[in-house]
Each structure stands twice: as structure tokens, then as C-alpha cells.
Amino acid sequence: MARNNSPSVLNIPNALTCLRLFLAVPFIWLVSYEGVISSYLALLVFCVAALTDWLDGYLAKRLNQKTPFGIFMDPFADKVLVLSALLVFMWLNLASLWIVLVIMAREFIITSLRILSETRGATIGAMPSGKHKMVSQLSAIISILAIVCAQYTLTALTGLPWDTALSRMGSQGVFWARVISLAPNTLLFIAMIFSVVSGIEFIRKHRNLFLKL
């Protein structure tokens, strides 16, 4: 009887992927709590989750523990984490609705294609452009969370709304208040461009899935 040499689903890379998925819950709670301590904890939780995105892929290659479950769940966990952050940002008026909708539409289409592929017995792995997209999204979200931490900290130290506190520092303060106000949507717009480009490349490469619908 031949031995099954395929790696078990119960391995460290898959555990890290599932951890990233579960970390979305405390992250949402912390970032929506709107406080100094909770904002820093939200940043910490998200950074840990982002680290698992790199670590699970690294360990899967290093330990030769790639599985169909991990190949499918890794990008799915990424999407849950990123979309959770975007929805909370939109609720906090940090992200424009149309930018979030474009990114969500891209993720919905690509996820649907992955599920369709799974039903046909084929697992689609991440593409290089998809990894670049993920890096741009994580970088934007971490930067925005750092901005939120700075805003709450400035408000706590001065007892004034952060933009008012900056405005009272003169013309330079007004300038930085404007920059900080525009930064979240600017960062997300850049991430959106990466998302759209990678989505188009993914569809072009796997267009045969459409042809078989």
C-alpha cells in the first residue's frame, strides 16, 4: 500500500493562516473603540496579523508544507483582514466609499473565481502581482493606523481635537493637518491601483474559467 507523502493540513503554516483570520475580530473591536490605548493595540494586532502573512508562506516553503487548504485559505484570510480594516476606516470617515467599493469588488471577483476553480478540482495560487497588491494594502492600513494613533495621542495630550491642536501651531501646523487628513485616502488610492492591476492580470491569466461558465 502506497504511503501518502502529502503534507498534513494540521501544520504550522496553516495554523498561522487561521490565526490571521481570527485576529480580524479583536482588531475590529479595538480600532472601533476609538481611544489612545485601543488604537495602539489595534496597530499591534494588525502588525502581528500582517507578520503571519509573510511567515506562513515562508514556513510552508521552508518546511515543504504547502497544502491545497493553505493555498486557498491564505488569500482568503488576507481578504478578510484587509476588508475588515477598510470597512472600519469607512465607518470612521477615514476612507472614501468608492475606493473601498472598488477594492471590495476586486476581492469578490477574484475570490469567486478561486471558489469556481476549487469546484473544478483546481487550486489557484497567489500571483506575484497579487503579493504586491497585498503589500500595498497592508502598508496603507498600517500607515493609516499609525496616523490614527498619532491623532488620538495628540488629542489626549492637548485636550483638543487633533486638527485644532495642529492648526494652533501656525501655518506649518495647518499644512500638516491637511496632509494628515488627505493621507488615508491617498494611501488607499495607491493600494486600489495595485488591486485593480493585479485583478486584471489574474483574470487575463485565468480567463479560461470564464469561457467554461
How would you describe this structure in keywords?
single chain, 8 helices, mainly alpha, 213 residues, globular, Four Helix Bundle (Hemerythrin (Met), subunit A)
What does this 3D model show about the protein?
This protein has 8 helices and no strands. It is mostly helical and 213 residues long. It has a single domain (12-211), classed as Four Helix Bundle (Hemerythrin (Met), subunit A) (Up-down Bundle), CATH 1.20.120. The longest helix is centred in the last third of the chain and has 35 residues, at 171-205. 30% of the residues are buried. The model has no long low-confidence stretch (mean pLDDT 86).
Radius of gyration: 20 Å
Helix content: over 70%
* Overall morphology: globular
For the terminal residues, how far apart are their CA atoms?
A: 39 Å
Describe, in short, the structure shown:
The protein has one domain (12-211): Four Helix Bundle (Hemerythrin (Met), subunit A) (Up-down Bundle). It has helices at residues 12-33, 36-62, 68-91, 97-119, 128-158, 162-167, 171-205, 208-211. Helix content is 81%, strand content 0%.
Task: Set down the secondary structure blueprint.
Elements: H1 12-33, H2 36-62, H3 68-91, H4 97-119, H5 128-158, H6 162-167, H7 171-205, H8 208-211
